[in-house]
């Protein structure tokens, strides 16, 4: 014998309180037939006759009244738990923990978050890290949503494409490559130690993938740095060339503190992707509102969302 579910116990208690199956069904928002079938199923499940049915109405048997009395405390505790869960959901709806790769965190998210705060009162925390760090934060639940750049394994995560940008090779004005008129080949680029982002960075993954596709393995970097700003500063100071998002170096290119060097034979395009745990459609609240700002889409029905992707 199995314990009846809470919904059935509530229905039986309503019959005792209201005096008929029909009145209990109306209070429950179901048809009288559905209520009657559910109560009969509970009688079969428990092996006990719970109701005396008559044309004038239904009354509880002695066993039925005992079951209602026994379940009163259980239902009260269930109501308290349900109210507590609702409170937690409301509190969580007003908090948003975001993890983002460096380019998104530095150049895109600040504007998105300002617009989100104008739309609703929400407490926001932002963790700026590399792609691996973002995925780890989302999978562990430390971040409700993450933004990454470049290729990554997204198994177990729902995600949506937010567009793309392209990496560009930059050097200091005094670097020998700054005076080249012809584009650099993949072989030449792979043979020179560069100023690089750290392992786990989407920027680094895109470059290494592009060189590998072109048939080359890059030599170890001259230096590894953990932010775009640090890479740009090192290159400006006369360090080895580096690859960065154009967003990260636009001002330097405009004023001439960095020089763009053309490269040929490399696909340096990278995708921006939002990731979260759960269903393909992002959860209602600040996560869905933030995505609507990042990628406006009428109705935001999730047609391009993909969840639970298996590893290749």
Coarse structural class: alpha/beta
Query: Into which percent range does the helicity of residues fall?
Result: 40-55%
> Topology as H/E string?
HHHEEHEHEHEEHEHEHEHEEH
- Overall domain count: 3
CATH superfamily of the largest domain: Periplasmic binding protein-like II
CATH class of the largest domain: Alpha Beta
Number of helices: 11
What is the distance, rounded to the nearest whole angstrom, between the alpha carbons of the first and last residues? Answer: 46 Å
**CATH architecture designation of the largest domain:** 3-Layer(aba) Sandwich
Ranges with pLDDT <50 over ≥5 residues? 298-312
Beta-strand content estimate: 15-25%
CATH topology of the largest domain: D-Maltodextrin-Binding Protein, domain 2
Write a brief caption for the model.
This protein is 45% helix and 19% strand. The protein contains eleven helices and eleven strands.
Q: How does this model look, in words?
A:
- The chain has 312 residues and is an alpha/beta fold.
- It has three domains: 87 residues, Arc Repressor Mutant, subunit A (Orthogonal Bundle); 100 residues, D-Maltodextrin-Binding Protein, domain 2 (3-Layer(aba) Sandwich); 106 residues, Periplasmic binding protein-like II (D-Maltodextrin-Binding Protein, domain 2), CATH 3.40.190.
- Helix content is 45%, strand content 19%.
- The strands form three sheets. Strands 3, 4, 5, 6, 9, 10 and 11 form a seven-stranded mixed beta sheet that branches. A two-stranded antiparallel ribbon has the order 1-2. It has a two-stranded parallel ribbon with strand order 7-8.
- Strand 3, helix 5 and strand 4 form a beta-alpha-beta unit.
- Helix 1 packs across helix 4.
- The longest helix is centred in the first third of the chain and has 32 residues.
- It is rod-shaped.
- The C terminus is likely disordered.
């Amino acid at each position: 014998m199995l314990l009846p579910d809470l919904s059935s116990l509530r229905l039986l208690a309503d019959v005792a309180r209201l005096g008929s199956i029909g009145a209990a069904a109306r209070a429950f928002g179901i048809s009288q037939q559905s209520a009657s079938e559910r109560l009969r199923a509970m009688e079969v499940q428990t092996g006990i006759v719970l109701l005396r049915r008559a044309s004038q109405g239904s009354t509880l048997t002695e066993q039925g009244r005992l079951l209602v009395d026994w379940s009163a405390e259980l239902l009260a505790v269930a109501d308290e738990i349900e109210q507590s869960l609702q409170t937690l959901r409301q509190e969580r709806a007003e908090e948003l923990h975001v993890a983002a790769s460096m380019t998104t965190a530095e150049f895109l998210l600040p504007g998105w978050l300002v617009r989100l705060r104008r739309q609703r009162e929400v407490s926001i925390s932002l963790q700026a890290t590399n792609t691996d760090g973002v995925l780890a934060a989302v999978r562990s639940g430390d971040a409700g949503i993450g933004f990454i750049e470049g290729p990554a394994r997204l198994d177990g995560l729902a995600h949506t494409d937010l567009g793309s940008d392209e990496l560009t090779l930059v050097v200091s004005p005094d670097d020998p490559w700054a005076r080249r008129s012809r584009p650099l080949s993949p072989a030449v680029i792979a043979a020179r130690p560069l100023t690089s982002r750290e392992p786990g960075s989407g920027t680094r993954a895109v470059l290494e993938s592009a060189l590998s596709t072109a048939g080359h393995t890059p030599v170890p970097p001259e230096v590894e740095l953990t932010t775009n700003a640090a890479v740009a500063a090192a290159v400006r100071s006369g360090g080895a060339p580096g690859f960065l998002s154009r967003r990260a170096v636009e001002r330097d290119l405009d004023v001439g503190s960095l020089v763009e060097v053309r490269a040929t034979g490399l696909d340096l395009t990278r995708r921006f992707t939002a990731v979260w745990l759960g269903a393909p459609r992002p959860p209602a609240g600040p996560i869905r509102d933030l995505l609507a700002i990042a990628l406006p889409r009428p109705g935001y029905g999730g047609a391009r969302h993909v969840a639970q992707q298996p590893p290749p």
